Amino acid sequence: MDALTTLVQSLGIAYASGISVYATVAMIGLADRVGWIGPLPGELGALSSLWVIGLAGALAVIEFLATLIPGVASAWETVHSAIRPPAAAALAVLTAWHGDPALVLAAGLLGGSLGLATHATKVGVRYAIDTSPEPVTNGAANLAELGVVASLAYAVWQHPYISLAVALALLAVMILAVRLLWRTLRRALGALRPRG
Questions:
Q1: Using an 8 Å Cβ cutoff, are 153 and 31 in contact?
Q2: Is residue 194 classed exposed, middle or buried when 0-12, 13-18 and 19+ CB atoms within 10 A define those classes?
Q3: Tens digit of pLDDT for each residue in 75-115?
Q4: Is 79 left (phi over 0), alpha (psi -120 to 50) or beta?
Q5: How far apart are CA 110 and CA 7, in angstroms?
Q6: What percent of the chain has a predicted confidence (pLDDT) above 90?
Q7: CA angle at residue 67 from 62 to 70, to 5 degrees?
């Protein structure tokens, strides 16, 4: 596999990790374990260990349930600001580990940055969704996120360039949507304030 493809795959994994590192690890590990993808590059093969899949799967279920509860969802996302970007960088490094040291370093730097951008966008969406006191929008957001993570966890190995291009386009759309959503919320709250 050439260095550019490896870098693209590492960035795809980092993007997915910015959404949910636990679901990303569990889905990639499980997909490799059952033979849907693989063999995984570099040291990423450790993800197919049964105990890693089990641990990541359990944490993904806890994350899914915690983010159904307004207020708890925002707190969960805030705490994960310290977890997802470094984990995205680590998974990108593991993906490129078999390559040239410069490639490994680039994967870590770019992967961490992309994981941070993805996570920050997700946090913006989650904070906006959390202004609604019902769990339906949180549940819909959870399912959408899992769909993106599952699709990317599979497709990045089959069609890495297309997968990353779609992920980056989705990130750009989400950034614009977050800006629009927050602007709309600000206007709505401004209209509720009493005029002095």
A1: yes
A2: exposed
A3: 999 999 999 999 999 999 999 998 889 999 999 999 999 99
A4: alpha
A5: 9
A6: 62
A7: 140
- pLDDT recorded at residue 189: 67
Sorted by sequence, the CB contacts under 8 Å of residue 133 that are 6+ apart come out as 70
Helix (H) or strand (E) holding 95: helix 84-96
* 19: Cβ contacts below 8 Å, ≥ 6 apart: 118, 119, 122, 145, 148, 149
Q: Which residue has the tokens 């401004």?
A: 190
pLDDT in tens, 54-75: 999 999 999 999 999 888 888 9
Cα–Cα distances (Å) from 111 to 1, 12, 65, 190, 195, in that order, read 19, 8, 27, 38, 47
CB atoms inside a 10 Å sphere around CB 64: 18
Residues 178 and 54: their CA atoms lie apart, in Å, by: 33
Q: The tokens of 72 are what? A: 């708890």
Secondary structure class of 153 (helix, strand, coil): helix
